[in-house]
Amino acid sequence: MKCINCGTDNKLKDRTANQGRCIKCNHPFAFEPTSMSNVQITDPFFAKAIADISANNTLFFTPKQLLYFLENRLRKTSKSISRFSWLVPFIFINLVTSITIFLPLVVNLAFIIFFHESSKSVKLNIVNRKQNARNLQIIGVIILFIGVLLSLPLNSFRLFVIFVVMGMLPIYLGTRQLGRIQLLIQDFLISESQINDWLNRWQQINGSILKILPSPKQENTPATINPDVTAYSFDRLVVCDTASIAQLLIANNFHFENNCAILSITGYPQSIFDTTMQMLRRNPDLKVYALHDCNPQGIALVHNLRTNANWFLNSEIAIIDIGLTPRQIIATKRGMFIQTSPESAQAAKQLPEEIRQSLSAEELAWLESGKFVELESFTPQRIIKVLQKGIAGSQTLETDDSSLLLVGDTGNDMYVVQSFG
Q1: Are 245 and 375 in contact (CB under 8 A)?
Q2: For residue 28, how far is the Cα from the chain centroid?
Q3: Cα 82 from Cα 59, distance rounded (Å)
Q4: What's the whole-model pTM score?
Q5: What is the 8-class DSSP label of residue 29?
């Protein structure tokens, strides 16, 4: 493992002999991958993750964003059985055991079960899940080929039928899994407590991470604002469904660079919330952008803004949904980090009828299954880019009955205005 201080490569025996320090500069290592159980990370790996998620220390990020970021990185390096390493033993075992019907049946079922379960594994990334699903298809083709090869010389119709059925099963399962993989839920390889321990260890050794955000503070004492400032208003308001996303945007000066106010539906930042709302209500041309997670609470954000007296009840102000929706998750070409919980399923079933009517049957089924996607699963750079494009794309809107649809591949995503009318 290379030392992040001087770049010297330290082998395990060197690190062990020097009490976990670099043999050249004596700088302590924060992590020892060989002593980690479920996942292994190194100091250079962690340092690069921090640099990448912060766009080379230019953007603030939340600890949960770092958790998701590390998850994605670790999944990319996670290993599953190679597509070709199993082929030779699989074919060999089938040919050797083909003198009976029972043995190849057991062997093939074992391979089919293994790859089918691997294609559904919440611990593997999308690429490895797809690979295992394709392995199922390959198994099916091989079984059909062996069936024809063996049954024709023996003139055995019974043997042929058995191999055809056995071969079509993995082909069907693999094809079905390939169509479902993008929408399968995922589980974390690491926990929030682990990431907090890693952050504490890292900062003890390497100093504070300047761009990581603390938990949003609840400041109930109103801030003193110059009356000359309060005489003005904003043309745009971004309302987030969580204080963490509102804090992220404010910390990265999104409000200054895009001339808009930023608040959360929970009232963050509390110290200037009332004053900001007074300023906003002075502008009849105000446009409001609702930025939210893809969960029942997020889906209800626009409805809450329209029906809550503290926000825009009985107002003609344009409210534009720029958040994540189930249709975006279902339609996207690349997999997102989909989770599930009983609480989310229950909350989905309790959504107001007005919201339910605006969703398709497929979207309702997706939500009521408990699935959800958090905005914090995206990097700060992507959230800011998407929000900027969404605001720019909505400038020509003439009605407020609109939404922004996520399209494109990961890394090049953008929201485009799509009317529900």
Answers
A1: yes
A2: 33
A3: 38
A4: 0.75
A5: P
